[in-house]
Amino acid sequence: MHHRKFENWIRRKIGSLGRNSAAAIIYIIFLMTSKRKHTLEAAARFADSSKARFSSFLKDHCEIAIYSLSELSKKQAREFSKIIDGLAQSRLPWTIAIIVDATFLTRSSLKTENAKKFNHGKGYVIGHQWTNIVLLINGKIIPLAPIAFYTKAYCKTYGIEYKTENQRVIEYLSQLNLEQYIGPYDPHKVVFLADSGYDDHRIQKIVAAKKWHFIIALKCSRSVKTEAVHHKTKKSEGWNSIAVNFNKNRKVKWQPIRVPKNGGKKKRMEFRIRQIIGYLKNFGKAQLICSQFSKKPKGGRKYLACNDLKATPRQIIIGYRLRWVIEIFHKEVKMFLGFEDVSAKWFDSVISHVHWVYCAYILLNSNPPGMPGQIKSMERKQQLVEEMIKRKELSGLSQLMTQINGVQRLKNEIRQVLNGGSLKNHYIFQMVASW
Fold first, then answer.
1. Pairing mode, if any, of strands 190-194 and 213-217?
2. 240-255 in b/e burial notation, b at 16+ Cβ within 10 A?
3. Distance from chain centroid for Cα 105
């Protein structure tokens, strides 16, 4: 993998950004390298520059990062959708999945702009909440522009109307034009996947209005009624929580099913499910599924709703399990790409950083020139980028040695390292010492 070709490839992918192109490309390549922490200090050392350069770049050019991610995700979605193989090796009736889930960018204190204390699991986290929307096409994850959560104090300071997370998701979905990403498509081949946090009849209506299908986990308190009760009662009567509804319909027997594990290798997981056709309150007709692991009959029940009445219960379970890819996406951007490493005070800097992280994720998974296509590990891909940069530095050293007074200039480089010079030159010094 040649550095110049790699850099030009990135430039073509993200397009022209004017005078900010150089800083953007350096920052993206920095995020694509294997580092312990992707901080602004580390970026400055990587570029042999100052921290202020990247600090001002992130804070003052937030709109560039947003635009770059939007255009890059569209380019990659169009490329991956040229030949669509379907979801889960064509075992499902849908070919494209839209997955929604939230994650947190943790911070150390509430003093950072727009930081908030969020309930999470058995405790709480301090930081920023991001709602991510990703496309799953041919097994490839393509993150779209994420939704930032704004606190009431932040909205008051900047004159922004405060909205809940679900309100922002509803607006996002209503404005999402999928044709811009994949071109003309059959809306019935699209499935929307979400956990119970997005069990909202307004979200379900938006998805149905676009003629997409959805598989959404339901809250245990979500009001439903069976088809038989629907025909016998008034519109406002006969509603029970989905948990109570399944308890009242015990004549619907458990059915065992086996589905492949997310990890592959032909392993299977055993579930048992119950299925009824019913109605979701404030929405309409849907398949209702109660599922649990066969080996854990006393707990772990999950209730699902799907508005595709032709899908089989097994297809619904497999389809919902595809939602796990967004959890893998969250893990990789945090572990390898420095999603949580930004320590900027201003939220505009955080917005820029998050969008550049997603750009780096897309590029690393887009078959960069010189990178073997069979490599799937994010860690290994970053190591290859790191090796490419080191070869560039050695090439520069070799070129320096062939120039007039090259040996003397090399000695000056070594003296600079000994006097506290840049880390990049320190690497060259180490290589010379090893020779």
1. parallel
2. bbbbebbeebeeeeee
3. 13
Q: Which residue, 33, 15, 135, 99, is CA-closest to 341?
A: 33
The Cα 164–Cα 93 span in angstroms is 33
Cα angle value 61/63/67 (rounded, 5°): 125
Q: How many domains does the chain have?
A: 1
Closest CA to 72 of 19, 131, 12: 12
Residue 416 covered by a domain:
yes
- Answer for the pair 231, 320: CB distance below 8 angstroms, yes or no: no
In a domain, 387, yes or no: yes
pLDDT for 266 beyond 80: no
Reading the block at residue 194, the tokens are 């979400």
The pLDDT > 70 percentage for the chain reads 86
- Are 257 and 274 spatial neighbours (Cβ–Cβ below 8 Å)? no
Residue 89 has pLDDT above 80, yes or no: no
Identify the domain containing residue 422 by its residue range.
381-434
**Nearest residue to 140 via CA among 404, 376, 313:** 376
- Does residue 409 form part of some domain? yes
Q: Does residue 423 lie within any of the structural domains?
A: yes
At 273-290, the pLDDT tens digits run 999 999 999 999 999 999
- Dihedral Cα 386, 391, 394, 398, nearest 10 deg: -160
